[in-house]
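Annex B. Sample input.
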Amino acid sequence: MPINSSLTSSDIDPKLLIDRNTAIFQDENGRSQISQYLYGPYSLNLTQFARRDNLLVNESIINPILLFQYCIAGEIKLLELNSNVNELRVGECLISILNNHNTISFENTSQNTILSIKIPLEELSRSIDVQIIEKLKISTQIKNTPIEISPFTARERIILSEILNPPVFGCMKEIFIESKMLELIAIRLSNFYNKTVNCQKNNALHFRNAELEKIKYASEIISEKMDAPPNIKQLAKISGINEYKLKRGFKEVFGTTIYEYLRTIRMEKAYSLMYSGEMNVSEAAYYVGYNKAGYFSRVFRNYSGINPGKLRKKL
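Annex B, continued. Sample output.
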């Protein structure tokens, strides 16, 4: 896929550019860094804010797009999806369709980092399997619509870490970022397709809507009590569903086991805390429920591909 433009082709003051893809903006309220990579009709933006005020970003959309947004650090509010405010928490990815505009609110925290990938809808039929396009249920009356919010997979976290810390530079970096962008798209859409198919199986397995809501409630309990989570028996009791349906339903709804889900949200929270500079390794380990920093470091390294001691604040 050809690289046909970059930030250097826009109206940005050349003095703000640190390379052809990245610009830094600074004022009395903090610092922002924006990286943009354009590959034919596809684009990848990496936006990082370290500010003392809330920031509202309005973006005009000329043609309808399929959008992937990965919240790497901080908390983001998406204000123009389906007439509702949708919160995107750290460690979550949102797939959505945008028709005419995109409004994002970045909360006042030490670090906000979001990676976005955009694909024009007219390109989908040329590059994505028709089975997946059908599952996206793109209406002829296109409007801003959220499709799915779900946690990063372990492989996605490694890819995101590689994009933030590329092992190459110059033109090789652009090629490297392109390969990682395509890998993220492939993983996210494949997982979405598999979960959609599994949801159809859920209906065949007679998971009622009330039971599915209980399974989702169980995931919220795990997120809130990640430092000292209930065991599966206790979680089933609190959620009001039997253990068998909880475990089977969890696998079908989230595409992972309860224990894998717990590990994912722990690692993502720890990543955010260390990446933002709020906590060191030992503090982050204890915060998410690990009493031994050494064991936490091994789990984190296996999950993200990065030694937590080398994770540094970027802004």
